[in-house]
Amino acid sequence: MRVSGLDEKGDWRFGRSKAAYITRVDAIRQNVTTRIKSFVTDFFLDTDACIDWIDLLGRRGTEGEILRAVERTVLATDGVTTINNLQIEVKTSTRNATIMLSYGTIFEQLIEDEITI
């Protein structure tokens, strides 16, 4: 697996030829993060892909729905084999959610990540 790498702001890295690409576990991690942060209808080839963040974060008491949506999204990502841990912390004061997760990959490595939405 090889994908175009993103910089710290989430923009594509250009001008570095093959060095702009990432592979293996790094590619899986980036794909999981990108899919979790993407809103439903963002991907024009599959408008049902990703998560309906506007609806989920716009209502109270949706932590369970968010966890199920994140779980479906992560498990549907190429290269992910299992989810070992998945938690969410919603901060209503900042209107953010932090997702803490760990998941296994086809390369038999465990990835632990924290993603803020």
Provide keyphrases for this structure.
27% helix; single chain; 117 residues; 3 helices; alpha+beta
How would you characterize this protein structure?
This protein has 117 residues and is α+β, with helices and mostly antiparallel strands. The chain contains 3 helices and 5 strands; from the N terminus they run ββαααβββ. Strands 3-4-5 form a 3-stranded antiparallel beta sheet, with helices on one face. The longest helix has 14 residues, at 24-37. It is globular, with a radius of gyration of 15 Å. The mean pLDDT is 88.
How would you sum up this structure in a few lines?
The chain has 117 residues and is of the alpha+beta class. The protein has helices at 24-37, 53-57, 63-75, and strands spanning 2-4, 21-23, 80-91, 96-105, 110-116.
Task: Please render the helix and strand layout as text.
Layout: E1 2-4, E2 21-23, H1 24-37, H2 53-57, H3 63-75, E3 80-91, E4 96-105, E5 110-116
Antiparallel strand pairs: 1-2, 3-4, 4-5
What's the total count of β strands?
5
Give the C-alpha Rg: 15 Å
Report the sheet-strand fraction.
25-35%
Number of helices: 3
Q: What is the string of SSEs from the N terminus onward?
A: EEHHHEEE
Low-confidence stretches: none
How far is the N terminus from the C terminus?
26 Å
Q: What would the principal axes of the Cα set say about the shape?
A: globular
User: What's the rounded overall pLDDT mean?
Assistant: 88
Sequence of strands across the biggest β-sheet: 3-4-5
Structural class assignment = alpha+beta
